[in-house]
Amino acid sequence: MTQHKPAGIKLRPGFPARLDLPRAGAVPVRPAPAQAQALAHARALYPAQGLGMDSSAVRRSMVAKLAQQGIEDAMVLQAMGSIERHRFVDTALVNQAYEDTSLPIGLGQTISKPGVVSRMLALLRLGNPGRMGRVLEVGTGCGYQAAVLSLLCNEVYSIERLRGLHDKARDNLRPLRLANVHLLFGDGMVGYAKGAPYAGIIAAAGGEAVPQAWIDQLAVGGRLVAPVSSGAASPARQALVVIDKTAQGLRQTVMEAVHFVPLKSGVA
Ligand code: SAH
Prior knowledge:
The chain is built from 7 helices and 11 strands. By secondary structure, the chain is an alpha/beta fold. The protein has a domain of about 180 residues: Vaccinia Virus protein VP39 (Rossmann fold), CATH 3.40.50.150. The site of S-adenosyl-L-homocysteine has 25 residues, from strand 2, helix 5 and strand 4.
């Protein structure tokens, strides 16, 4: 058992997802045969029924795999099990929506794989069992991670530099009616000062350094998780970096290698 219970997440009426996951301690290490059967059944239904299918079985299977990969944070697992990832990808890709793979979302960008999304969210929350305060996400993309974040923190400020994706995220998120997600169009390299200070900052695109604006906008006691490129290698090598802002200063930890789209300045 983990020390924190899955949160009693309150969703607004009309939210279509169901929170019917088992408690964290009960998440099977390997998918049970019945679950594998349900997954195969759901996969068979997918092409025929498209977005209308009951996708909770495939999501449960995805969550079981995330737990197997070492994601222990019950609140993150529950949020990943609640948000319907297939709503965020093109119709032609829905049958891959619950595989641990990144997928194209248009304009040369990708939705991160569930394993990476859950890993970054677990890092963001590490040592902090409750719901977070305000979080800034740089790189809204299709809006998937913003939706997951909305179940983990009080307010999500998510900024995207490509107008086409900002609009797409708005369309994707509208039916979910997540009142605490604020979508912003702009250059996230300068952060979003109006929402600062943030308890957490999470970036879905990697630059050569963490912009000073992000550090400035992070609350004391807050944490930042971002992919950062290192060295002159081509293609650039990226690693996840965790920065804690404490009263005594910054503490940086470099984690595993990752592959994110580049952080770019300006809007388009
Ligand atoms: N979290 C997203 C992942 C999108 S990929 C999702 O769940 O779909 C990363 C996104 O970062 C891309 O859409 C890219 O356009 C955006 N991006 C890159 N540099 C940016 C910047 N400076 N400001 C805001 N968004 C940026």
